[in-house]
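Here is one chain, start to finish.
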Amino acid sequence: SYEGDVGVTSISNGISENVVETLSLDDYVSSNESPEVMKIDVEGFEYKVLSGAVNTLQKGKPNILFLEMHPSMLKNYDDSVDDVLSLLQKHDYTYTIIGNHREDDSQTEISEVKGNVVLRCQSPEVH
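Its structure:
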């Protein structure tokens, strides 16, 4: 489950009065259309969210994915930037760094990422 106020949210163990139930993308897509464009900003839970979408990603959906990665927060969930990138690459998604909205420096390589960064990921279906 997911809890908190807008802008100050986190994944929790479900012990809260402000809990919103979550649903994996694969479960959502089982009875709805796959999204063509999607933005993920989940404060370090990126790998877990993408792991809940592997069947959808395998089909090349969403076509475009904007993914804000939080390297330091990924560690809180025993995940890493490499885990996220490996999962995307396994499903043939390519990515480019489109910016770090929190700092005034531009990186061109993931190895240069020190803070949060937004990736534009593209499925193999997009030319």
